[in-house]
Amino acid sequence: MNLTDEQKRMYDGEYGPGMQKAISMLVEYGNVWDADRMARVNSAHVALWSEIEWLAEMLEGVEQIRVPLATVHPGNCAASRFGRAMGLREKFCQREAKALSEKLGLLVPKGFVPVLSCTPFLVGNVPTPGSVFSWGGSEGICAANSIFGARGNRDAFPAALASAITGVTPDMLLLKKQNRYGQLLVKLEDLDLERFTLADYGALGNYIGGVAKFKNVVVDGVPNTVSFDQLKHFTAPMPTSGAVAICHVVGVTPEAPTVEEALGHKKPEEAIKVGKKQFRESWESLHTATKDDVEVVFFGCPHLSINELRELARLLEGKKKADSVRLFVCTTEQIYTIAKSMGCTDIIEQAGGLMVRDSCIMLFPYPELVVPVTNAATNSAKAASYQARAGIKIQYGSTESCINAAIIGKWGG
User: Fold this and answer.
1) Tally of CB atoms within 10 A around 196
2) Among candidates 163, 134, 132, 169, which has minimal Cα distance to 33?
C-alpha cells in the first residue's frame, strides 16, 4: 500500500505504539482487498464491546484521535443506570456498569463523544453525501450509505476504532463509486406502501435483505413521500437478514434519482418482484409467538427518534400498561431531553413505561433477568430477528398493536 509520509511515520511508531498498532491493522485490512492507498475519514463510530486491556493498547500514546468526529455506540442494558429497573440481576449490572465506566474513561479524554447511540445521525454525527465514514453497527452503516449517500464499508468496530485513531481507512470497496451501483433490482408490486407502518417497512426490508445477501440493492416502487423513520426501519433489518451495506431507493436516496443511475446504466445481476406473498412470508418469519400472553413490550431498535416518541405518547396518553407487562422505550439522552420538553416522556412514564437511555435493546440479556421472560412484542424487525435466535418468542406488529398489547397484556385484543 502506498502510504503518505505522515502515515509512514505512524507505521514506524513515531507517534506511539497505539497509533502504530492502529495503522498497521488498517494496512493489513486494506491489503486483503488490494487497496493501494488510504482515504481520509470524516467520521467514526465505535463500540465498547472490546476488552479494556485491548482498548488501552490501542490508545497507548495517543493524545487525541485524528478523525474530526467519533461517537460511541450504546452498551449492554445492564451497564446503564436502568439495568435494575429493567429487572436484571444486580451483580451483573454492577459488573457491566463498572466496565462501561472504565472504557469511557479511556475513550472520552482522547476525543470520543459518548452519545451511546446506535443512531449517531440523530445526535450530531451526520454524514454528508460523498463523505467517508468508518462506523461499526450494521444499521448505522446501511443508513449512512443509503439514506445519506456517504461512503463507508461494513467495518467491524475494531477497524472503526483504528480509523478514529489515525483519521484514515483503506480506499476500497464501497468507498469507490464503481462499487456502489446496484446489483439486485427489487420491483415492488401490489403493496399499498402509502399505508405502511414502521413494522410493515421493517418486514419488507427483512425480506429484501434475506434475498440480497451481500449484494447492493436497488428498490423501485417506494413513494417519495416515505418518511425518514420509515426508511430507517426499512434499511435496519437488511444487514441482519442478509449482509446489505447499501440500499438505493429510487427517487428517494441521493444516488438513485432513476433506476438506470442507481444501476450504473448496466443490467442488474438479478431482478426480483416483491409483493403481498413475499411480504406476508417475511412478516410470519418475524412473528414467532405461539400464545397471546405478552410479558415485555419494547421499542427502540434502532433508537427512537423524536417523532417516534411523540407517537408513543399519543397512543399512551391517559392510559396505563398492564401490571403483568414491562414496557421498555429506548432512545438517547439527547432525544429524551427534547421529548421531555414536549411532555412526551411524562406521558410515557405515567403510563408505566421505562424510558431507557444509552442502551442497546437488540441483544437484551434475557438470561440475566431475575424473573424469566419468554414472550415479547416489538415493532422492530431487526430486534425481532435477533431475539428470536436467542429463544424469545416474538409478537411482531405495528406500534399501535404493541401499545395495545402493553395495555391489556395480550396480543390482538
Assistant:
1) 21
2) 169
The distance of Cα 101 from the centroid of its chain, to the nearest Å, equals 22
Nearest Cα to 212, choosing from 261, 272, 258?
Answer: 272
Residue 5 CB neighbours (<10 A):
6
pLDDT tens digits for range 20-53: 999 999 999 999 999 999 999 999 999 988 899 9
| Burial class, 57, CB count within 10 angstroms (exposed 0-12 / middle 13-18 / buried 19+) | middle
pTM value? 0.96
Q: Grid cell 469511557 — which residue? A: 104
Compute how many other C-beta atoms are within 10 angstroms of the C-beta atom of residue 192.
8
pLDDT more than 90, % of the chain: 94
Summarised one tens digit per residue, pLDDT across range 82-101 is 999 999 999 999 999 999 99
Calpha distance 7→13 (Å, rounded)? 10
Torsion angle of C-alpha atoms 90, 95, 101, 105, degrees rounded to 10: 170
Any alpha helices (H) in 175-324, and if so which ranges?
A: 198-212, 228-235, 238-241, 259-262, 276-286, 306-316
Q: Domains of the chain by range and CATH? A: 5-176 (3.30.499), 181-285 (no CATH), 287-408 (3.30.499.10)
Q: Which residues contact 367 (CB under 8 A, 6 or more apart)?
A: none
Q: Which three cell numbers stand for residue 189?
A: 408490486
Q: What are phi and psi of 40, to 5 degrees?
A: -70, 140
Q: Which of 230, 401, 248, 409 is nearest to 312 (CA)?
A: 401
Of 118, 35, 39, residue with least CA distance to 71:
118
Identify any residues that bridge with 377 across adjacent strands, giving them in sequence order.
297, 395
C-alpha cell at 18: 497505539
As given in the structure block, the three cell numbers for residue 301 are 431498535
Residues with Cβ within 8 Å of residue 378, at least 6 apart in sequence: 297, 298, 299, 301, 384, 387, 394, 395, 396, 402
Cis bond leading into 302, ω under 30°? yes
CA atoms of 21 and 51, how far apart (whole Å):
16
For 366-375, write each residue's pLDDT tens digit. 999 999 999 9
- Name residues whose C-beta falls within 8 Å of residue 150's C-beta, 6 or more positions apart in sequence: 42, 127, 128, 129, 130, 131, 132, 133, 144
